[in-house]
Prior knowledge:
Elements: H1 5-10, H2 25-34, H3 46-56, E1 75-76, E2 87-91, E3 102-109, E4 115-123, E5 126-133, E6 137-142
Helix pairs in contact: 2-3
Amino acid sequence: MDVTAFDQAQRFVGVKETPGVHSTPVVLAMLKLDGEWPTDDAVPWCSAFVNTICWLLRLPRSKSLAARSWLQVGHAVPLTAAQVGYDVVVLEREGGGSVGGHVGFFAGVSPAGDTVYLLGGNQHDSVNVAPFPVTRILGIRRLSTGHW
């Protein structure tokens, strides 16, 4: 049985930041995989989550805590060809701008086609599936051409 990144990411659903001065150890470990500067989990950690899942499966990864770094990993696919289990979606920051953003695993599109669902970390401070407007999509990246 092949395990996809989506399958692996689902195992983390429910992991969330610890409010206050303490940090959730698994979130801090994700942040420390590719960055030395985070000292707590009160920082953006969506890219750390995606990097951790890819590291666990030996998939290509950005090795960066920046969400937009994923635009350089794998190859581009259009939304119409996106597949649950195999693709990463990079979004611009809410409100726009040329810096920052969000990244997560493709989890589907609404029937109307105006909403994309992502399984990601740091979505309301936890790992979950959340909706985002498709107008925020900067890119969709396929990390592998074959099965994982």
